[in-house]
Amino acid sequence: MSHPDLNLLITLNVLLTECSVAGAAKRLRLSPSAMSRALARLREATGDPLLVRAGRGLVATPRALELRERVGRLVQEGEAVLRPVETLDLTRLLRTFTLRNQDGFVENFGPDLIARVGEQAPGVQLRFVPKPDRDSAPLRDGSVDLETGVVGKAMGPELRAQALFRDRFVGVVRMGHPLCEVAMTPAVYAAGRHILISRRGLDRGPIDDALEPFGLKREIVTVVGGFSEALALARASDLIASVPGRYTGNLRDGMFSFPLPVSPPDITISLLWHPRTDADPAHRWLRECVREVCAGRSPVRAVSSSPSRW
Fold it and tell me: What CATH number does domain 88-310 carry, 1.10.3720.10, 3.40.190.10, 3.30.470.20, 3.40.190.290?
């Protein structure tokens, strides 16, 4: 029984990443003809063309797309097995990590995270980028190291996720709003004029589902894509914003917050990363920093003229 040439896994990983024989040859320091022969062997071994001509370039077949993540993980794990265990010296670590988050994370957890990282690893820079959607591609291609958010159906099945904290929605209005002085009931809440937060532009959400058993429906005046926009509008008008309480704590400074009189499901904010970085000591250290910072913050109390209502 013949054994497969496992060296072909490295070649296959580079070919599927580059989608170019010439590009793969350059990365592996081979001649284009040698890479073409390797591709022919891979096609024979897998029983699939893997890369096919499309115009002037090559595109991956469905089988190649299916293999790409698996092969990448195998190569990464194989390299980790054959690499000596590194002792991480944080004082000498020079690296930039990119973190992708929805608005609210940096405002609430950024200062503590930056302080902790700066104290332990002064050569590390954190780069925060916005999260306009739930696309997993930035984690897959390595342009993002870590991401926070609610795990949903759009998350890639290969990604790792760990819960950071649970959060619940609160209502928020400007100080001096008429709702500051009334007992909050489902009817009172629904009668207000509301801001809906939806990155996909939807016209309803979990709060609307929670109002349905009461026979109530909110008046949605406007739809925005993020928490900062919703709270800025609520701060400057009589509109009501409903946002995750802990995640938006600092964004709500100086505003009146109240528990919702209905019970939409709590949400769980999780930390997400690609498995290629599981064994990376520096990445493991950063993940632990994020977990400790999020666990160490006490729940943000609402700014309210009537604390007993919280």
Answer: 3.40.190.290
Cα gap 309→242, rounded to integer Å = 17
Pick the CATH number of 7-81 from 3.40.50.2000, 1.10.10.10, 2.40.50.140, 2.40.37.10: 1.10.10.10
Phi-psi domain of 215 (left: phi exceeds 0; alpha: psi -120 through 50; beta: other): left
The CA distance from 151 to 87, in Å, is 32
Q: Which amino acid is at 153?
A: K
**CA 112 centroid distance within chain:** 19
Start-end of CATH 3.40.190.290 domains in the chain: 88-310
**In which residue ranges of the chain is CATH 1.10.10.10 found?**
7-81
CA nearest 120: which of 272, 288, 274?
Answer: 288
Max CA distance (Å), the chain? 81
Single pTM value for the model = 0.66
Direct distance between the N- and C-terminal alpha carbons of the chain, in angstroms, rounded to an integer: 71
Radius of gyration of the chain from Cα atoms?
25
Candidates 101, 157, 163, 169; CA nearest to 133 is 101
Q: Give residue 135's pLDDT.
A: 80
User: What is the rounded distance in angstroms from the CA atom of residue 11 to the CA atom of residue 19?
Assistant: 12
Per-residue model confidence as pLDDT tens digits over 267-309: 999 999 998 888 889 999 999 999 999 987 433 333 332 332 2
Closest CA to 211 of 182, 240, 234, 232: 240
In this structure, are residues 170 and 283 in contact, taking their beta carbons and an 8 Å threshold? no
